Amino acid sequence: EAGVVQSPRYKIIEKKQPVAFWCNPISGHNTLYWYRQNLGQGPELLIRYENEEAVDDSQLPKDRFSAERLKGVDSTLKIQPAELGDSAVYLCASSFSGPGELFFGEGSRLTVL
Amino acid sequence: QKEVEQNSGPLSVPEGAIASLNCTYSDRGSQSFFWYRQYSGKSPELIMSIYSNGDKEDGRFTAQLNKASQYVSLLIRDSQPSDSATYLCAVNILASGAGSYQLTFGKGTKLSVIP
Fold it and tell me: Would you call A25 an interface residue with chain B, using a CB distance cutoff of 8 Å?
């Protein structure tokens, strides 16, 4: 069974540029999460989807971050414009249902110069 | 106050010893608790889940939960160098801003098993 797939694995951009990350969850997993992990910290939730509905986006910086989950499967996380403080690993995860046992993708490491 | 607290370590144990990792959490209403392992440069992977007070064993790993003390721990018996990683405690915590439970992670404890 294929795991959670993310792309790109690495991205280096200059500040104020836009960037987008893509995630394909495990087949049949209804819940999809985007987390951000800074160096030496645990992952922090940005947004959680149940099917195509964003049910928890309370920690998403909505002035510059946006996300969508097309047809309840793939998801895209966008940052526009990027700031230096956005440098981090962006992790996508999925689970069968609810905020429980998560399966993480390999992550997308963003460096903003 | 951090919602999920862990000692960041590093925790060093000799090969074959028992490694004990601890975690406290703030929400008395939390009902589900998880331990994830994260190797350097890799993403977290789930190794244990626990929902009831007491102990849960899986191979060399034992998770312990005490809801009255708001405390969860992970014991690794017969520690191996391959166990060297950061161990993240995760708890479902009611997020006031969201009105729903969020899986909230601690900072993680870095474990080094010395051959």
Answer: no
pLDDT tens across B51-68, in order?
999 999 999 999 999 999
- The pLDDT of B88-107, averaged and rounded, is 86
Q: Is A13 exposed, middle or buried (0-12, 13-18, 19+ CB in 10 A)?
A: middle
Q: Are the CB atoms for B44 and A104 separated by under 8 Å?
A: yes
Kindly give the pairing relationship between strand A53-56 and strand A44-50: antiparallel
CB-closest option in A56, A103, A106 to B100? A56
pLDDT average, residue stretch A43-49: 95
Cβ–Cβ contact B50 with A under 8 A: no
How is the beta sheet containing B54-58 ordered, strand by strand?
B4-6, B19-25, B71-76, B61-66, B54-58
